[in-house]
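Follow-up to my post from last week.
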Amino acid sequence: MTINSLVETDFPEEFIEEMGKTDDALPKKIDANPENVEKGLAKLVLTLIELIRKLLEKQAMRRVETGSLSEEEIERVGETLLKLENKMKELKQIFGLKDEELNLNLGPLGDLM
Amino acid sequence: MTLYTYGIIDSSDQIKESIYGPEGSGVYNIPYCDIGVVVAELNEPVQNVSKSSVLAHEEVIERLMEHFTILPVKFHTVFDGRNSILSMMQSYYKHFKDNLNRLRDKVEFGIKVIWPADKIKKSIRNSRKKGEHEMPIPDGSLNKNFVRKKLEKYKINEEFEQKAYKFINVMDIFFSKFAAEKVLKKLKTENLLLDAAYLIDKDRQADFKKAFEHIKNAHTGFKFLFSGPWPPYNFVICRRKVSYLKIPNKKICLIK
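User reply:
Got it. Predicted complex:
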């Protein structure tokens, strides 16, 4: 077998590891059965909630950074974000999901998060 | 009969070289107007992907690249017969033709860069700890402290991304001098700073390699991977099916 294309690197293991992390979040084959259907649905829903939570958090941080929130508003933002984060932790635990599992591969658009 | 497909080439002529497919049958060209689809016949269903099947596929593509411009199709693409292939060609002929013209005499190179993300984050954290950056929220309640922590994390991430884009920009400006087109994926993971594909004219391959060596030597502490020349996997643009006329038993050539 003659392959002329070259792959040159002094660090093959590191690249294999990093590329492994970027593999499709969606499996190549659908392994659907009554036991995992609930978890699959939870994963999808929690991914979307997590996306919204992160967007909210970013927006809040931008506003805090620019100083456009009063002390009272910062207090309320903190309370909301803290409660949201704790609720997400709880739900992830219930469905046995890890942070890195909450993502969707959108094909050519890349990962959702 | 199943047809295992390698790609679309800019010729309707038969392949003169002896090239063999997955089951040892000859690789041949199914012509359509002035282009063609390179296939091999399969009797057995497609087996699972293995390292040797990937290498064998790549070898065929590389041999075709020596003589033709090729639009590689996805690995393990199969059709259920000649008619399916002709129907697909009828639908996409113009797209294929445009791609073949655009990609003629060009090859793809891949560059991946890992940067010391941990060290960079640490240095950002340290410089912020030195008190140069004032936080707009005073210490206070649990909720306020939570926001304070979040804001600090947000600012570190922002600075981290800015640094990353700065490095990517420096590298990309240099590589782009030699490239006809590029596809950049930035910070796919915290460590994987850049995952890029560059489309290079065949006669500029050596210059591009030199540019890569220059950038590599200028960035100690970064890890580089260089690969190619590949067929233009990342540069084939195929939009949705175009409308076409369908006349039974007749090939329709949309080229004008």
